[in-house]
Amino acid sequence: MASLASLASLASLASMASLASMASLASMASLASLASLASTASTA
After folding, report:
1. How far apart are CA 29 and CA 41, in angstroms?
2. Cα distance between residue 1 and residue 11, in whole Å
3. Any signal peptide, and if so, which residues (predicted)?
């Protein structure tokens, strides 16, 4: 039973880590798109 609980906790930790990494990637992508938009607007 303890092994099942530890496996469940490990799975939840892995899912939270993957969600956090996806969120950080999305935020970096949005920041990059905003920066490219700002550069094109400044040159135009």
Report:
1. 18
2. 15
3. 1-20
Residue 30 token pair: 């949005």
- Residue recorded with tokens 């880590």: 17
3-state secondary structure the chain: CHHHHHHHHHHHHHHHHHHHHHHHHHHHHHHHHHHHHHHHHHHC
What's this model's pTM, rounded to 2 decimal places?
A: 0.56
| Mean of all residue pLDDT scores within the chain | 90
Q: Choose among 17, 39, 19: nearest CA to 27.
A: 19
Q: What is d(CA 14, CA 35) in angstroms, rounded to the nearest whole number?
A: 31
